[in-house]
Amino acid sequence: MNQTNTKPQTPCVPPQRLSTTRLLGIGREPDPFDRIAGTSREICKIKALLNRIARSPASTVLISGESGTGKGLAARAIHEASERADGSFVSINCSALPPGLLESELFGHERGAFTDAKERKKGLVEAAKGGTLFLDELGEMDLGLQAKLLHFLDHKSFRRVGGCVDIQADVRVVAATNVDLMAAIADRRFRRDLYYRMAVLMVELPPLRERPEDIREIVSRLLRDFAEELNLSPRRVSPMGLRWLQAQPWPGNVRELKNTIERAVLLSPENPLCVEDLTLAPPAHDPIEARASDTFELPPEGVDLRTLERSLVAQALGRTGGNITHAGRLLGLSRDQVRYRIEKFSLRVHTSPDS
């Protein structure tokens, strides 16, 4: 094979990632950006920008975009393409825990710092030393904790909850949000100084509706992955089905597309999958939104809210066979929020918490 031509064969491959081992055909770790499916102009520009961000020395990165656009995937790609790749990639959802517990999870706590602090615990910042800390849904963080995060970013040091010793930590912080932080600043829900500290390097991920030409590749990957995961024969989508997929608005972006393909694979035996298979839709209305619009009437004698919450979580887990993801859908909670309540109420789950 002629190795003299080192020109990239595709505009989606940043030239600086064509390492010697790749050019010589020697085995190496997969390119982290290959996980981001698509060859559209928009996604190629995003991959190139993410690559430049990964190789920069900046300690903070802010990723914005609608829900389901792959912000977590982009954050992990930044980590794996950076000089910190040998360090840990530690993530947490800022909306999944109440402020006090989130602070303890991030910065750790000393023994006796609060009622249940029976021993010293290191936080995620310490766990991410030399690596990357990913803060998902940063816009949901409590204002008080935002101030402590800003102090850490400015000084590279923090104190555990209940501690009096400054601890140094070299960590790159990558944060993601699907809310308009400038609007949150105007509403006094987000600190302006933290925004400018985090937004040293920014990237906004485009919604799927703005790059329908990428749907073919995304669907192909999803079908391959589901076939392997579910031990099924390979499937494909008919040309008409693909055109239908490309014409949809996908408000839930790639996550919604993934759910659509998974549902079709599980419920339809057809190959190729046609439009009818792809429209084996969930309920026409969102049960969570419907529940939110209902009014719960408080009994005259009142209720024990803790007992009620525990009962609802236990019922959801029982109804779904312990599947945390499905239980979360019934309750309108994320996986992390369900896990937190399992621990809070000491509930027994009869299947794996990752199910």
UniProtKB/TrEMBL annotation:
The keyword Ion transport appears for this protein: no
Occurrences of domain Sigma-54 factor interaction (ranges): 36-266
GO molecular function, one term: ATP binding
Alphabetically ordered keywords of this record: ATP-binding, Nucleotide-binding, Transcription, Transcription regulation
SUPFAM superfamilies named among the record's database cross-references: Homeodomain-like, P-loop containing nucleoside triphosphate hydrolases
GO biological process, one term: regulation of DNA-templated transcription
InterPro entries: AAA+_ATPase, AAA_lid_NorR, Homeodomain-like_sf, HTH_Fis, P-loop_NTPase, Sigma_54_int, Sigma_54_int_dom_CS
Pfam families named among the record's database cross-references: AAA_lid_14, HTH_8, Sigma54_activat
Alphabetized PANTHER family for the sequence: ALGINATE BIOSYNTHESIS TRANSCRIPTIONAL REGULATORY PROTEIN ALGB, TRANSCRIPTIONAL REGULATORY PROTEIN
Full protein name: Nitrogen fixation protein VnfA
Organism: Enhygromyxa salina
